[in-house]
From TrEMBL:
<dbReference type="Pfam" id="PF00005">
    <property type="entry name" value="ABC_tran"/>
</dbReference>
<feature type="domain" description="ABC transporter">
    <location>
        <begin position="5"/>
        <end position="234"/>
    </location>
</feature>
<dbReference type="InterPro" id="IPR017871">
    <property type="entry name" value="ABC_transporter-like_CS"/>
</dbReference>
<dbReference type="InterPro" id="IPR003439">
    <property type="entry name" value="ABC_transporter-like_ATP-bd"/>
</dbReference>
<keyword id="KW-0067">ATP-binding</keyword>
<protein>
    <submittedName>
        <fullName>ABC transporter ATP-binding protein</fullName>
    </submittedName>
</protein>
<dbReference type="InterPro" id="IPR003593">
    <property type="entry name" value="AAA+_ATPase"/>
</dbReference>
<dbReference type="GO" id="GO:0005524">
    <property type="term" value="F:ATP binding"/>
</dbReference>
<dbReference type="GO" id="GO:0016887">
    <property type="term" value="F:ATP hydrolysis activity"/>
</dbReference>
<dbReference type="InterPro" id="IPR027417">
    <property type="entry name" value="P-loop_NTPase"/>
</dbReference>
<dbReference type="InterPro" id="IPR050763">
    <property type="entry name" value="ABC_transporter_ATP-binding"/>
</dbReference>
<keyword id="KW-0813">Transport</keyword>
<keyword id="KW-0547">Nucleotide-binding</keyword>
Length: 310
């Protein structure tokens, strides 16, 4: 299947020498949800701006829907939607008129039924005649999404779509994103809330200092880089590791009163090894009073990769 978006050698250097994008190669598949993760200043918004025509790249190529964005920008851009981080609309305009106007900006013919469908899907229909300034922060964010969907894009960028909204509204946004994907929209989102990527994304890309560090299927990433960590509280302190468990990835902590295991590969191997460690302790006559075990999250992997890049 032809990819919906291809970036090759994409580079952006700002006046003064700041390299916001450094030879970025990235391919987005049609119909997927792709999460682009990175700290502030990593290049996420610059990358989105380059694709959406808001930032002029310094080098490389961008192809969307098989079209070169430099030569066929108008045709390609008409099929791309963007939900920016910041409100960029007339706050004194009504919800309905703002969304209808966004549709007209792309030369799409008026369609009252489609506008109503979008507003209803975002729980905005009963707010259609209200001025945007009168809405809550979460509702304003939904208006941005409605505006981006008004011209029925095939590729949608969501730049920090749930920034500043509470947990309940954030979960509502996740449901909306899932509905958009079900309608065939390809979605690229940036987020500081890594649980969003863990909940929604098919694939994850990690960007730092303008460079893509890794792109992988979310589940494969978790399996390959995930770890199990366990803390075993010992009944009596030990001065050194007993030979029975010396072959496992364990070390003594807290003055010899606790054993820490850190290993596995995200496939369940870690849990099995923790069980073997406890059996070995029992066979060696070493008593323990408790075990705490946790699996690494996508956030743990993200922080670890950024640490290696720093």
């Amino acid at each position: 299947m032809e990819p919906i978006l291809e970036l090759s050698g994409l580079t952006k250097v700002y006046p003064g020498g700041l390299k916001a994008l450094d030879n970025v190669d990235l391919t987005i598949r049609r119909g997927e949800i792709f999460a682009l993760l990175g700290p502030n200043g990593a290049g996420k918004t610059t990358l989105i701006g380059a694709v959406c025509g808001l930032v002029r790249s310094s080098g490389g190529t961008i192809r969307a829907f098989g079209l070169d964005l430099e030569s066929d920008w108008r045709k390609a851009r008409a099929r791309i939607g963007l939900v920016p981080q910041e409100m960029a609309t007339d706050m004194f305009e009504t919800v309905y008129r703002a969304v209808s106007y966004s549709r007209g900006l792309f030369g799409v013919s008026p369609d009252k039924a489609r506008i109503e469908e979008i507003l209803r899907s975002l729980a905005l229909w009963d707010k259609k005649d209200e001025q945007i300034r009168a809405l809550s922060g979460g509702m304003k964010r939904r208006v941005l999404i409605a505006k981006a969907l008004a011209h029925e894009p095939d590729l949608l960028f969501l730049d920090e779509p749930t920034a500043g909204v509470d947990v309940e509204l954030r979960k509502g946004m996740w449901a909306i994103i899932d509905q958009m994907r079900a309608r065939g929209v390809t979605i690229i989102l940036t987020t500081h809330y890594i649980e969003e990527a863990e909940e929604m994304a098919d694939r994850v890309g990690i960007i730092s200092k303008g460079r893509i560090l890794m792109v992988d299927e979310k589940d494969a990433l978790m399996a390959r880089l995930g770890r199990t960590e366990a803390h075993i509280a010992l009944a009596e302190p030990m001065a050194e590791l007993p030979a029975a468990i010396a072959g496992f990835p364990v070390e003594l902590e807290e003055g010899g009163t606790s054993l820490r295991y850190r290993g596995g590969d995200g496939t369940g191997k870690g849990k099995a090894e923790v069980a073997e460690v406890t059996k070995a302790l029992t066979r060696a006559g070493i008593d323990y009073t408790g075990i705490e075990t946790r699996e690494s999250s996508l956030e743990d992997i993200f922080v670890s990769l950024l640490g290696e890049d720093g």
